[in-house]
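Many introductory courses stop at the sequence. We go one step further.
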Amino acid sequence: MYNKLYTPTEWASIRSRCRFDAVKDASELFKASCASSVFDSRYAGIRESRDADNDHSSTPLIIGFDVTGGNDFFAKELVTHIVNELIFLRGGCISGGCMHFMFAGIGDITNDMTPLQVTDFRSDIGLYDDLMRINLEKGGSGDGVSYNLLWYYASRHIRSDHFEKRGRKGFLFTIGTNACRSGLSVVDIGRTCGDDISESLTNNDLFSMAEQQFNVFHIHLADGSAKSKQVFNKWREDHPTHVTELRIDDICLLPELMDAVMTYSSCGDVQSIMKSLAPEIAVKLARPLGFIINDNRSGGSIIF
């Protein structure tokens, strides 16, 4: 297990050791045959994002991704490209303002053995070792993914100095191709998080709970099919200005999209954000950002 600082040298080392550039399939990186009890939400307890002695502005970032069947392509991109590029865009994991990453593997509460896996918050190079220990269960039923489990977990099982000391929200992204299952019952919460609650919770309840400590967003990975459009429209209907979509063919631009969404949440200056992007990237992200900024109900793009 690594605990070295996240530096270009350490990134190059793990990239070489795990042969990221030669990876063809996520199974070459994610080798766990079952979920680790360390990451199982039933036993994980509280996850904490705390400032280091020389760092008083750490920001928690949770990235939850679909580990049901058909989403392996994203897990591969997350390891080999997305995380490192996002760290680069956010200024690096260095003292004085680094991101603390927590990863969550999200499945289907009805059909999967372990519907929620959560890593510890980390900003060192060892975050990759944790990420690759998540089990890609590849279950599900086609009826939706339990993204709402992460909303609940984040609202009740996360502690951060960013919120407790500075009164500022962290960021939570869920990413995938599927619809979200509706609500969580008392039994669901008890079975997956070990909590005893008095009544079932709707998705609106769960989203609002997570929003107390986090800026919450969902990124739908679109394949252009009629079903994909239907899923996205349902997400938009339920959570306008918190949901956007990105074409699977443009997945390499996900770090820029996430960075832009986080920057917009902090400063609200969309024109400066768009002008800071390379022109060809700005053109492709104008529509996705439009959904966050004004819900983009007309389907148009940002003018910049």
